[in-house]
Design a protein that fits this description.
Layout lengths: L2 H11 L2 H5 L2 E6 L2 E6 L13 H22 L4 E12 L7 E6 L3 H14 L1 E12 L2 E14 L13
Antiparallel strand pairs: 1-2, 2-4, 3-6, 4-5, 5-6
Length: 159
Amino acid sequence: MTPAELQALLSQELPITQHLGVEVLCLDEAGIALRLPLAANRNHKGAVFAGSLSALATLAGWGVLVDSLERHGVDAHVVIQDSSVRYLAPVHADAVARCAAPNSALLERALATFGRRGLARLTLSAEIAQGGTPAVTFQGRYVFHRRGVPLPRRTSFQE
């Protein structure tokens, strides 16, 4: 998947990304970088709104997982199951979220679970830095499942 293809997918599948101004800066086998403009996401203190930062980090994990699955020939829906965000410092400029591609051993294990059960989960971490120092850290657990098959109400299962 190219950055332009992911940008189009974000616009189509998650229209809010257009309103937030999310831009795919980089997408390759190593990971992803997404940009969020301060101007469209400014809070009353002149910093980026925390909810926008959380959304950006969530989207970085979603995008890198969608790309990783495509690289492995897996056509699946990806959703966030739960997440944790730490706001370490205000972000007073355009924000860039970076998320590394999943660890290959963990991804292979999740793909094996997906093959057996039709769904699997994977935890990813993202970071938004300002001036080389982490300003936001994010950890999210994503579930991917076969298209056309609804998620069960509970997704607690052994990986």
